[in-house]
Design brief:
Elements lengths: L8 E4 L7 H9 L4 E4 L7 H12 L6 E4 L1 E3 L2 E2 L2 H4 L5 H6 L3 H15 L3 E2 L12 H4 L9 H17 L6 E4 L20 H18 L1 E4 L14 H11 L5 E4 L13 H11 L4 E3 L6 H11 L2 H17 L11 H17 L4
Parallel strand pairs: 1-2, 1-10, 2-3, 3-6, 7-8, 8-9
Antiparallel strand pairs: 4-5
Length: 341
């Protein structure tokens, strides 16, 4: 028995509906997930139709989105600007923020929110690079906010994913643009890891970053980080998603198909190719031809287990778009007016 390599990929498409060529590619090599971005969003009805179209593809891919709030909010143009995770956390409203993120996902047909961020917010590094996306500097505060966000997300009927393992808090470069190196400091690493250790089992999925450590490899391509640390030291049994393998942090580390195969070998289970769908087929073939079947089966089993544990129904009915838009605005106003928790 072998696992179809395509099912280990999460891909992005170019616009608000599938092109004929994209449909042909995704029907030939059915991915495990499709990610939505702002380029895919024109209207509530349009996103709902696209989600139905995607879920009807062979393999029933999971429809996913980055819905962190604040600077990372793919739906701001159709439902209004949401409060940032940072602001929701420091005002004690992270559960409400997670609930609205989950309700937004359910309304639009999205199963998985790639949130929350559990990186530490540190001066001169993540405070600048990940502005508005990190809850706090203190691991205990991050854990409290992320746990609350996940509780709200799950209650609203959506799955989550904590990120960016093993922590981008000390990274002074944006992985979209360059490869950051994390200094070797066991005490600081322990603080970086604490929020992941406390929240990853609740989320069921961890996104692995491109931050490099002592071996010079980004975590996505490093067995020492993606397997030995995540699985061995922390004991995580859920699904590991790579960050986008197209990011410039990986520019010096091979072509996209090579990166995909290397990430799977290192320990990532879902391989994200977010824009260059024209290279997707080559990525699938490289994984098929160079990654042992045993490793592909292991990754497929973890992804299947994650899909099975996703909430099936929200705890309360999803509101109509106008009412949800009002609720998003009201939370944003509450965050602006609330005393800092």
């Amino acid at each position: 028995m072998t696992a179809p390599a395509a099912a280990l990929f999460g891909v992005g498409i170019s616009g608000p509906s599938l092109t004929a060529e994209e449909r042909r590619l995704l029907e030939r090599d059915p991915p495990g997930a499709v990610l939505l971005f702002r380029r895919n969003v024109e209207s509530v009805e349009g996103v709902q139709a696209l989600a139905r179209e995607l879920e009807a593809l062979p393999g029933n891919p999971l429809v996913c989105v980055d819905m962190e709030g604040g600077p990372v909010d793919r739906f701001r143009e159709i439902l209004g600007f949401s409060a940032s995770f940072r602001d929701a956390a420091r005002t004690g409203l992270a559960r409400e923020a997670g609930g609205l993120a989950g309700e937004t996902c359910r309304l639009l047909g999205v199963r998985v929110d790639l949130a929350p961020v559990v990186d530490r917010m540190l001066p001169g590094a993540s405070e600048r690079v990940l502005a508005g996306r990190c809850a706090a500097a203190d691991p205990a505060e991050i854990i409290a906010a992320a746990t609350a966000f996940l509780d709200g997300l799950h209650a609203a009927g959506a799955g989550g994913c904590v990120k960016h393992f093993p922590g981008l808090g000390r990274a002074d470069l944006d992985t979209h643009q360059a490869l950051p190196f994390l200094p070797d400091d066991p005490d600081e690493e322990s603080r970086d890891l604490a929020p992941f250790a406390a929240t990853m089992d609740s989320a069921g999925a961890v996104m692995i970053s491109h931050a490099a450590g002592l071996d010079g490899l980004p975590a996505t391509l490093s067995p020492a980080k993606a397997t030995a640390l995540l699985r061995g030291s922390l004991g995580f049994r859920g699904a590991a998603f790579s960050d986008d393998l197209e990011m410039s942090a990986l520019d010096a580390l091979g072509e996209l198909p090579d990166r995909a195969a290397e990430a799977l070998r290192a320990g990532c289970d879902l391989l994200l190719v977010c824009s260059r769908i024209e290279e997707y087929a080559a990525c699938v073939r490289q994984v098929e031809n160079t990654v042992p079947a045993e490793r592909r089966l292991e990754a497929a089993a973890r992804l299947a287990a994650y899909a099975r544990r996703l909430p099936r129904e929200p705890e309360r009915p999803v509101r109509a778009p106008a009412a949800l838009r009002d609720a998003i605005r009201e939370l944003r106003d509450r965050v602006a007016e609330a005393p800092r928790a």
